[in-house]
Amino acid sequence: MPIFPSVEWFDVVREVFNGDKSYRGAGGGTCDATVGIKAGQQVFLLVFDGFECTEAREVDENELERTDFYLDMNLDDWHEMLANIKENGAATLNYTLNTLDLERTDGLALSKSGDQYRQDLFFRYNQTFQYFFDASARVETVSQPSHASTGNT
Fold first, then answer.
1. Is the pLDDT confidence value at 150 over 50?
2. Nearest to residue 35, comparing CAs of 76, 63, 8?
3. What are phi and psi of 96, to 5 degrees?
4. Which one, 57, 95, 104, 138, has the greatest CB density within 10 A?
């Protein structure tokens, strides 16, 4: 079972997401974005191209400047969101990326570059990113202990 967060976990979720054509409709669709994921002290880069997430890799935090935006939560918040997705098959209202973004003073989708046009891709393709994380409901996940958690709350 892959551990969240890890490249292995993102790769398994990518396989589920890329292999399910139902994620391409009803708000999902072609998406071109480079997304950073900050989970505690770990940073990952996801590349969305067309209907697929084509790449997942762990990167140095400096790489976030090259992303269109990045999502930053501490490990406890990531684990809570993923547990909700697993339990319900998809995020319920309080655990959607959009709701989590609205509830945070600085938002969930952040930008190191300050480029608002690139950061806006979070809102433009939000349903595709939600479908990506919802695909994790079909992945057996082991959670990394939260004592390493240092992200934003």
1. no
2. 63
3. -75, 155
4. 95
The contacts of residue 60 (CB under 8 Å, 6+ apart) are: 43
| Mean pLDDT, the chain, integer | 93
Q: Mean pLDDT across the stretch 93-113?
A: 96
Q: What is the reported pLDDT for 153? A: 42
Q: In this predicted structure, what is the pLDDT of residue 144?
A: 79
Residues contacting 53, CB < 8 A, separation 6+ = 13, 14, 17, 18, 46, 47, 132
Residues 6+ apart with CB under 8 A from 126: 97, 98
Domains of the chain, earliest start first: 3-144 (3.30.1050.10)
